[in-house]
Amino acid sequence: LLTPVILLVDHKFSSAEQSLVRTAIMWFVAGIPFSVIHACLSALLSYPVEGISWNPLRDNSYFVFYVMGSWQTFFAVVGVLQASRYYNRYLRSDLKLERVEKTLIEARLNALRLQLEPHFLFNAMNAISSEVSTNPKLARDMIEDLGVLLRQSLDCKDRTEITLAQELALLEHYLSIQRVRFADRLEIRMEIEPATLTTMVPPMLLQPLVENAIRHGIERRM
Questions:
Q1: What are phi and psi of 200, to 5 degrees?
Q2: Of 76, 109, 194, 199, which residue is the least packed, with the fewest Cβ within 10 Å?
Q3: Pick from 25, 34, 45: which is nearest to 6 by CA?
Q4: What is the pTM of this model?
């Protein structure tokens, strides 16, 4: 009968941040009237049963026994409530930490993307300028690939994940420009499991890997 009252008091005091010591003192003080009231209710409810000879209303010496039992019951209920509350706080703090870590990873990816795009644009524009006079059609095709790549990368800028198929489409436009730069020096082979094409990955995940492979693998070699 007193459980709703305990829940109400717990809800009222839990709305304000308090130290563990103050919470313990508050519940210790509140436990005294609760224990007395609970002992009286127990005595009244069990009084009609004549077989209960240890009822405080029949024998006053049992009143302390009833109060102590009520006190233990009260703190058992309060202990379960507090344990549940601290466990929920732990879960919420753990969830907040995961969100912070995710935000940090996204920030690092965006910073990496901002560092890579100017470098890539510089190389792409150099490759296009070298073909403008000798092969205008090829230069136009490269500009078209570059435009598609930039437009799609902007579309993915505010997204944290895209499918692997979309990432490979971005990579293909990048490779089209690199094929012109290196011609026969560059050989590209892709081996992709079809089941992985729907896997979600961060945007521009493969481009820096391929760019580093080209830059450090063949760009400085004759």
A1: -85, 130
A2: 194
A3: 34
A4: 0.46
* Location of structure tokens 């990816």: 109
Q: For the chain, give me the number of helices (H) and strands (E)?
A: 6, 2
Residue reference for tokens 């524009």:
125
95 contacts 102 by C-beta, under 8 angstroms: no
For each of the chain's 222 residues, which pLDDT tens digit applies?
878 888 887 777 766 666 777 777 888 888 888 888 888 888 888 878 877 777 777 777 778 888 888 888 888 888 888 888 888 888 888 888 888 888 887 777 666 665 555 666 777 787 788 778 888 888 888 888 888 777 776 776 667 788 999 889 888 888 888 887 777 888 888 899 999 999 998 887 888 788 888 878 887 777
